[in-house]
Structures are given as C-alpha cells and as structure tokens.
Design brief:
Layout: E1 8-11, H1 15-26, E2 31-34, H2 38-57, H3 64-69, E3 71-74, E4 85-88, H4 94-107, E5 113-116, H5 123-128, E6 136-141, E7 150-155, H6 161-173, E8 177-180, H7 189-192, H8 194-205, H9 211-221, H10 228-235, H11 237-250, H12 261-269, H13 296-319, H14 325-335, H15 342-349, H16 351-365, H17 374-384
Parallel strand pairs: 1-2, 1-4, 2-3, 4-5, 5-6, 7-8
Antiparallel strand pairs: 6-7
The structure holds nicotinamide-adenine-dinucleotide.
Length: 385
Amino acid sequence: MNMKNQIIGIVGAGAMGSGIAQVAAMAGHKVVLFDNNPGSLEKAQTSLHTNIHKLQEKGKISNAAEIFQSISFTSKIEDFAPCKLIIEAIIEQLEVKKAVFAEIEKQVQDDCALATNTSSLSVTALAASCRLPERFIGLHFFNPPPLMALVEVIPAIQTDPKITDASVALMQSWGKTPVQAKDTPGFIVNRVARPFYGEALRIYEEGIADIATIDYAMTHLGGFRMGPFALMDYIGHDVNYVVTETVFRSFFHDPRYKPSFSQKRLLEAGWLGRKSGKGFYDYSPDATVPQPDTNPEKCQMILDRILAMLINEAIDALYLGIAQESDLEIAMTKGVNYPKGLIQWCKEWGASKCLAVLDDLYRTYHEDRYRASALLRKMADEEKK
Ligand SMILES: NC(=O)c1ccc[n+]([C@@H]2O[C@H](COP(=O)([O-])OP(=O)(O)OC[C@H]3O[C@@H](n4cnc5c(N)ncnc54)[C@H](O)[C@@H]3O)[C@@H](O)[C@H]2O)c1
C-alpha cells in the first residue's frame, strides 16, 4: 500500500484541517478540503493563500501558485471519490465524527485509508463505526501543522499493519517526524505532559509557592522554555483544562490526572489566558508583573517534584508499552519542546533519586497520585546493583 502521490482528502477546514491541507499540498499532493460550513471554507481559502504566498516572499518556495491551485475547496462530500487517504479534523465529538465517516465510506473506494486527527477520542471506537475498520488510523498533528514536525501515529486495535506502515512512510515523505503510540488516552504527549501542569497547580494550591516562583524554577533551573502557568495561559484554559479533564475521565479517574479547581474557576470566569487578557497572569499593559522568590532550595524542591512526576509518567508509559523509548523521547522534545527527553533525564538524574522524591511524596500525602511506576522501582534497584 502506497499513499505517496495520491489525492488526499481533508474533512474540516478549521485550524488543523487547513494546516494539514497546506502540508499535504506542499509535499506535492492534490488535496480536496471539505467543510460543511461555507464560512470556514472561505476563511481557509484566504488564510492558505496568504500563508503559502508568504513562504514564497520569504524565498522558502518558488511555486506558491501551483501549490495553492492543488488544493480544491468543497462543500460536496462526493468530491472525496478519487482520494486514497482522508484525514478528518472536525469538531471533537464522537457521534459527529462517526456520522461523517459513515458518509465518507459511501463515497470512497475500499482501498482509501481513513484517519482521524482526534486529540482525545478513542481511535478504536471511531474505527468500530466504520464498515472497514481495518483501514482506519489516528494521525495526530500538532498546532500549527506546517510548523510542528511531530505526528503521533495511532493504530486502532483493528488497524491493518500495512496501513500503519504506509502512514508512517507518508508522514516521513511530508517531512514530518512520526512516532507510534498505543490507542490510550492522550496518546504520548497529552498523557506524559500532564504532571507539568497538574503538579505545578498542586504546589500552588497547597500554598508552597506562587505562580511566578514555580514558573521561575521550571524555566531558570529546569531549562523549560515556558513555565507551567505561563504555558497554560498561552494554550488557553478552555483547551488545557478540557484536555486534563478528558484524560482524567478516560483514565477511569486515576488521581494522577486529577484536574484542579483553580484552573476550572479561571475557565468558568472566562479568564482563558493570553487570548482574553487574563488568566493566571494579568496581560493588561499596566499590570504589575509578579516577582518570583528565587530562593535556591525552594526552587530546587519545585523542580525536583514536578520533574519526578514527569519522569515517572514517561517511565510508566514505557512500562505499559504505550510507545517505544526513542518515540517517547522524540515526542516530548519535538511535540512540546522539552529541553531533554524524560528518560534521558531519568538516567542522568538517577532512577533512585527520582524514586526517592516520589516515595517521599507518597509518605507525606498517602495518595495513589504519587505511586512510582514498577519500572522506575526496577531501574532504581538495578542502579544499586
Ligand atoms: N487545535 C489544536 O491545537 C488541535 C491539535 C491537535 C488535534 N486537534 C483536533 O483536530 C480536530 C479539529 O480541531 P480544530 O482546532 O482544527 O477545530 P476548528 O474548530 O478550528 O475546525 C473544525 C472545522 O470542522 C468543521 N466541521 C464541523 N463539523 C463538521 C462536519 N460535520 N462536516 C464537515 N466539517 C465540519 C467546522 O466548520 C470547522 O471549520 C479536533 O478533533 C481536535 O481535537 C486540535
């Protein structure tokens, strides 16, 4: 099965769908971009025209007109008939997505692969609603697709391995960095990154440190590009909180992923972060910028606690076969720009040190949230030997 040089169909001309259309067109495909909202199609047409021509102005491409013309914009689902891969990027609702795939399957040939860009739904559940579930796969792009190299490739339990291999090859041919993940909540990035936000919120809610101090510890001491609170404000609490709550629910309420009331209240108040001018921080021009407490012991304690939780999450994902080690490392460094892979960090730090931090938290709180992964315990044992 070869998807190269084939016509690619995209459902949903929003932020993700139009970005994926640009990536496919720039890789030389003919693209059919479908949306049921004429306003979305019009907006996508204008923004794609601008984005592609801007690349030409910057000297990055010389065939902007040709690339733009290879994308057709349509509100007729029948136009998917000649496609060999359809990537769906519509609203994140299971029933709506299922209905769209049922319609698509009536239009395309049996050898057309079907993919979803879902961030939080089960790929297997979506595949199950298709007539031919073995041709179904998850292709999770990051925002904005033309700039973010990482793509999580998520086979459903029904997916034919040939579809998985062809998808990986196709993403490579598009200049992307594909990693493979098991179909479990949050895949790799949205699972492993949860403690970056969750443990920072917990430290803040307990009154151990304020937001400026936690952000300072993670950036200055940890080398992260943004601190957790600045990053949550940047992503927007409507997105970040909803991902956390969905992951928590999908993990059968595992306390490791428990959402925070402080963040929920921001969402309820409409203090969504940067885009609304206020979140954890105040972005109005005359706002006073909160100053961190740069006490070295305090900052080290904050970094150790959040990092130990992150490492534990990555090690547990490895233990449970969610992804292979190299893919876990690539996902966190390319998908969310972590300064180092978390497993590498564990090796440098020492698994015993990480385990000691977690066991100490477990003794203090008596909460399942702080349980160390069996693999981390094994690694610490091996270190001693
Ligand atoms: N935004 C992100 O950062 C991000 C990252 C990775 C994955 N995702 C996932 O990608 C998908 C799309 O997200 P988005 O941010 O691009 O959303 P968006 O709201 O920007 O765009 C969704 C588009 O789908 C269209 N649409 C809705 N229902 C439709 C239907 N029944 N038929 C055809 N078109 C329909 C809408 O008109 C809209 O243009 C979601 O599943 C989301 O979880 C989003």
